[in-house]
């Protein structure tokens, strides 16, 4: 996959006060030239100067013409003391020449091991053999935080799908080969291994026309582009394209297509050479780099502890299931209500406004499941503390009681940082901080003082998840607050972990608290939002012209004020010192997306120190992962019987065990609606199926056309939420008449297929399967689908082809596998699609219509749409049967109470169509009292002479056949299923 460059950690070094602000410097911030005060209520609030968030000016190595190429100067290693067994190999690697010490101190001796974990899984590790005099320890990733892949005791090299070979010529390298194709899937031949105390580099070759997916979190196309550099470093930044984002997911899927000749030999092909008249097979494999350090992957077809696990597949389905089942864990089973619609915005000012929003959804008869709060509800942006003027507990209790009685839910935001009170203001007491400080659960500076950064409330501290008391502290705060506010889930934000200043900037500055962030909030002077989506100037000419003029004036005023001073007039270049780690400014500079690329910019600094001596440098990418775990455990203490509902921003491999994820601070632009699809599909690979984005966009103003299309698209995402920023124009779906109609149209489908969605989530939770799927994964023998990310599947049976551009009235879509007899039905007309194999078909899609198709061979269990999932769950059942080309169809349904952790009572129903007979077979103890109302069968070529249900004639009044559309509808079945749709096994014959 090209070159992997890793900011590998060496020793735990604790230099006194290294990188921390001294008291004198910290106090100096208050008189800095760009410091200011804002008036809030009756007091003047100190504003943290913008310069506080400026780091050193760095140049990333990938774009630095003076950067040394480690491959050209480092000696590599030689293997010796090789010991082989049926289950693998161990060897010692020693430097093959003089140390290069290019970005750290070379390690003289390494342990190399291969372990065949299972027939479809193997592990490669390279770790330091011993500790030299300059290093007291090497960081080892905690297996309780990130588990190691499991091992099958019956595994062996002989029976493995994969094999590894190695050589010392010209220096040590290894190659992983798939036995079935004799194709190398990982090959370091021709490169040297570089292993230093702050830098690891290894290179593997790639096919010329590769299909790689994953390596998150980034916003980009589904199939990774050639010659792309991907940085993995958790960053609080508003959705840049291709740059590092909120989380780190060091996993990728590699799919290769082969033409098979008459002798069964496989020939690797380039995708652009695919011929629809020929037959192909594909083989997929996955690779997980079990490493939490900052990493950089350079994708180039030319060719830490290293801890790689290979998953042989051979399909995407096999790889994804193997990765989850054996390594990172299975995704959480979501509560049924979470699949309903969620409404949020930054700017709901009080309980009354929330009640008005809920009332408007009812007025316009738009389904609403959950109302959310951003940071508006907080007292001074403090976690677990409501503003008693705008969100008093007494009024909230009344609001939530009414909300819950309507079958709806409430979820608020909680940030990762904890406000630290002003010691000179007795009225500024904050019990959450006091309890945490007493238990000593916050991150420290190297000198042992509390690390004090800055986030929304002002100067803040940060929970130390390495402290054994931190989890109990966090859980206690959740439990205590829940007694005042009956929340139904938690939204975790800012958990990269973010800080609005470099270093411990609050040390000596606490008398300034509460402080305003070092930037203006949306809507404040100089930050008025004038941004609108592309095409707005066509549909709203006058308003667009006015906004453009105002934006130009605002930009000119900002330019007149002058650019903020940089903290450095030239680039800082760090030269490695033998045996010493510079964690704040590593010699190798990754392409971190903050303005000056400093790892400390807009983040807790790498030298912040945990209770066990580990520095943030070694575990930065795990903070978000661990706070999600702590939040999950906290919600279990609120109610151990109920599944926690959590949506988090920063994630790591395995975070899906506890939480879902949303795509972060996107923009109200058409590009971000498009990118939401590959984002969602990538997180399917990462084992986080509960994914959605801020529908209609977060930053900037949305408009009617974009919101119309986006509300319909997101209706087919697992997590469906509309959310926008402070001071932006409202974008609730009832704001525009056409958006209301479009939303209701798409929600009618979503709420009808909620049982199908829920069944997919149960399968993901129990088997590691995916919910949203790329066409290439479901149809692995068609190379032309490898890069398709403008349409997608929900499970195996629903295909969505959305409009992703302004002013469009049609969209092009491909209908896979038609040449193999696949049949696709239009959801709305229920007729088979007339299309040609491998051809993009033009599909009418006027504004307000999203093309949706049902795959032949499917049985979809459905219920009636309603305004809440609770109401929908109480309606009669129907089945939509879409016959395949061979007249057969299959389907599944899982039922339980939709919220319990322990599924003592559940029901699994399988549906099978063979000939002209549909059979439903149920297993389990869940009693489903709702009757079966109708069965609709698509693709019935002839009118049936009679219809029988369990041998009993269905009255002619309940049977309708349309010869034109070839649709058979069987109704009035509720009379035959009064005890419940699945209280007994039954057969429908026609």
UniProtKB/TrEMBL annotation:
It is an enzyme of class 3 (hydrolase). Residues 1-19 form the signal peptide. It comes from the Eukaryota. PROSITE patterns: GLYCOSYL_HYDROL_F31_1, GLYCOSYL_HYDROL_F31_2. Keywords: Glycoprotein, Glycosidase, Hydrolase, Signal. Residues 112-256 form the Glycoside hydrolase family 31 N-terminal domain. Residues 331-760 form the Glycoside hydrolase family 31 TIM barrel domain. GO terms for biological process: carbohydrate metabolic process. It catalyses: Hydrolysis of terminal, non-reducing (1->4)-linked alpha-D-glucose residues with release of alpha-D-glucose. This is alpha-glucosidase. Residues 768-860 form the Glycosyl hydrolase family 31 C-terminal domain. The keyword Hydrolase applies. GO terms for molecular function: alpha-1,4-glucosidase activity; carbohydrate binding. InterPro entries: Gal_mutarotase_sf_dom, GH, Glyco_hydro_31_AS, Glyco_hydro_31_C, Glyco_hydro_31_CS, Glyco_hydro_31_N_dom, Glyco_hydro_31_TIM, Glyco_hydro_b. It comes from Penicillium fimorum. Transmembrane segments: none annotated. Its EC number is 3.2.1.20. PANTHER family: ALPHA-GLUCOSIDASE (PTHR22762), P-TYPE DOMAIN-CONTAINING PROTEIN (PTHR22762:SF133). Belongs to the glycosyl hydrolase 31 family.
């Amino acid at each position: 996959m090209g070159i992997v460059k890793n900011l590998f950690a060496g020793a735990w070094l604790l230099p006194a006060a290294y990188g921390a602000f001294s008291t004198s410097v910290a106090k100096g911030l208050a008189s800095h030239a760009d410091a200011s005060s804002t008036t809030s209520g009756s007091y003047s609030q100190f504003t943290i100067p913008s310069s506080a968030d400026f780091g050193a000016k760095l140049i990333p190595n990938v774009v630095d013409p003076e950067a040394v190429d480690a491959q050209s100067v480092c000696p590599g290693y030689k293997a010796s003391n090789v010991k082989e067994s049926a289950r693998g190999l161990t060897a010692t690697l020693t430097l093959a020449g003089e140390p290069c010490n290019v970005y750290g101190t070379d390690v003289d001796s390494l342990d190399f091991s291969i372990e065949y974990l299972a027939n479809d899984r193997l592990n490669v590790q390279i770790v330091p053999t011993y500790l030299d005099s300059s290093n007291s320890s090497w960081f080892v990733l905690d297996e309780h935080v990130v588990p190691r892949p499991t091992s099958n005791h019956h595994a062996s090299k002989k029976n493995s799908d994969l094999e590894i070979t190695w050589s010392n010529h010209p220096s040590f390298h290894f190659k992983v080969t798939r036995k079935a194709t004799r194709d190398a899937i990982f090959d370091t031949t021709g490169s040297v291994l570089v292993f230093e105390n702050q830098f690891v580099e290894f290179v593997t070759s790639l096919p010329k026309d590769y299909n790689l997916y994953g390596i998150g979190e980034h916003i980009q196309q589904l199939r990774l582009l050639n010659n792309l550099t991907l940085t993995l470093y958790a960053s609080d930044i508003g959705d840049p394209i291709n740059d590092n984002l909120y989380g780190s997911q060091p996993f990728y899927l590699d799919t290769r297509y082969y033409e098979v000749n008459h002798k069964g030999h496989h020939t690797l092909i380039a995708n652009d050479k695919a011929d629809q008249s020929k037959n192909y097979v594909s083989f997929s494999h996955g690779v997980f780099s079990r490493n939490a350090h900052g990493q950089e992957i350079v994708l180039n077809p030319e060719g830490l502890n290293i801890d790689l696990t290979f998953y042989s597949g051979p399909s995407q389905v096999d790889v994804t299931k193997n990765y989850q089942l054996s390594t990172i864990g299975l995704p959480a089973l979501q509560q049924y209500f979470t699949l309903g619609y969620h409404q949020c915005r930054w700017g709901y000012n009080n309980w009354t406004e929330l009640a008005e929003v809920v009332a408007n959804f009812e007025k316009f008869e738009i389904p609403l499941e959950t109302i959310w709060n951003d940071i508006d509800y907080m007292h001074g942006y403090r976690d677990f503390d409501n503003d008693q003027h705008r969100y008093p507990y007494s009024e909230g209790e009344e609001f939530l009681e009414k909300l819950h009685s309507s079958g709806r839910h409430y979820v608020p935001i909680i940030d990762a940082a904890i406000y630290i009170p002003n010691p000179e203001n007795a009225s500024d007491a904050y019990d959450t901080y006091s309890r945490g400080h007493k238990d000593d659960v916050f991150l420290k500076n190297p000198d042992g003082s509390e690390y004090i950064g800055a986030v929304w409330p002002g100067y803040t501290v940060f929970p130390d998840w390495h402290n054994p008391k931190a989890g109990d502290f966090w859980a206690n705060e959740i439990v205590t607050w829940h007694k005042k506010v009956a929340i139904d889930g938690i939204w975790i934000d800012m958990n990269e972990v973010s800080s609005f200043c470099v270093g411990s900037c609050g040390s000596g500055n606490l008398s300034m608290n509460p402080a305003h962030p070092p930037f203006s909030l949306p809507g404040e002077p100089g930050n008025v939002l004038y941004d609108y989506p592309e095409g707005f100037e066509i549909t709203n000419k006058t308003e667009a012209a006015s906004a453009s003029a105002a934006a130009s004036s605002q930009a000119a005023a900002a330019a007149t004020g002058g650019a903020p001073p940089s903290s450095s007039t030239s680039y800082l270049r760090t030269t490695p010192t033998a045996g010493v780690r510079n964690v704040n400014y590593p010699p190798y500079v990754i392409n971190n997306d903050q303005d000056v690329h400093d790892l400390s910019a807009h983040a807790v600094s790498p030298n912040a120190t945990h209770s066990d001596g580990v520095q943030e440098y070694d575990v930065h990418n795990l903070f978000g992962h661990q706070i999600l775990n702590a939040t999950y455990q906290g919600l279990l203490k609120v109610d151990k019987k109920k599944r926690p509902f959590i949506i988090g921003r920063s994630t790591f491999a395995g975070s899906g065990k506890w939480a879902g994820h949303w795509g972060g601070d996107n923009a109200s632009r058409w590009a971000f609606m498009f990118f939401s699809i590959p984002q969602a599909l990538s997180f399917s690979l990462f084992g986080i199926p509960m994914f959605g984005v801020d529908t209609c966009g977060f930053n900037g103003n949305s408009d009617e056309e974009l919101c119309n299309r986006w509300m319909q698209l997101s209706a087919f995402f697992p997590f469906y939420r509309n959310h926008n920023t402070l001071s932006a124009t409202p974008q609730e779906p009832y704001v525009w008449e056409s958006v209301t109609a479009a939303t209701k149209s798409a929600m009618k489908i979503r709420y009808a297929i909620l049982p199908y969605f829920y069944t997919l989530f149960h399968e993901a939770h129990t088997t590691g399967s995916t919910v949203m799927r790329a066409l290439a994964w479901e149809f692995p023998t068609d190379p032309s689908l490898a890069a398709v990310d403008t349409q997608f599947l929900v499970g195996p049976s629903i295909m969505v082809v959305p409009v992703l551009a302004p002013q469009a009235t049609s969209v092009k879509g491909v209908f896979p596998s038609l040449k193999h007899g696949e049949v696709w039905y239009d959801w709305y007309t229920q007729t088979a699609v007339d299309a040609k194999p491998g051809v993009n078909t033009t599909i009418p899609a006027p504004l307000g219509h999203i093309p949706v198709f049902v795959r032949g061979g499917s049985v979809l269990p459905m219920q009636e749409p309603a305004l809440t999932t609770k109401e929908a769950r109480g309606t009669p059942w129907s089945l939509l049967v879409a016959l395949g080309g061979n007249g057969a169809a299959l389907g599944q349904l899982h039922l339980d109470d939709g919220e319990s952790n322990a599924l003592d009572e559940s029901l699994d129903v399988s549906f099978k169509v063979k000939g002209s007979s549909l059979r439903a077979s149920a297993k389990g103890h869940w009693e489903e009292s709702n009757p079966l109302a109708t069965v609709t069968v698509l693709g019935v070529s002839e009118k049936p002479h009679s219809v029988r249900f369990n041998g009993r004639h269905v009255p002619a009044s309940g049977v309708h056949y349309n010869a034109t559309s070839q649709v058979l509808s069987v109704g009035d079945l509720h009379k035959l299923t009064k005890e419940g749709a699945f209280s007994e096994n039954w057969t429908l014959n026609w």
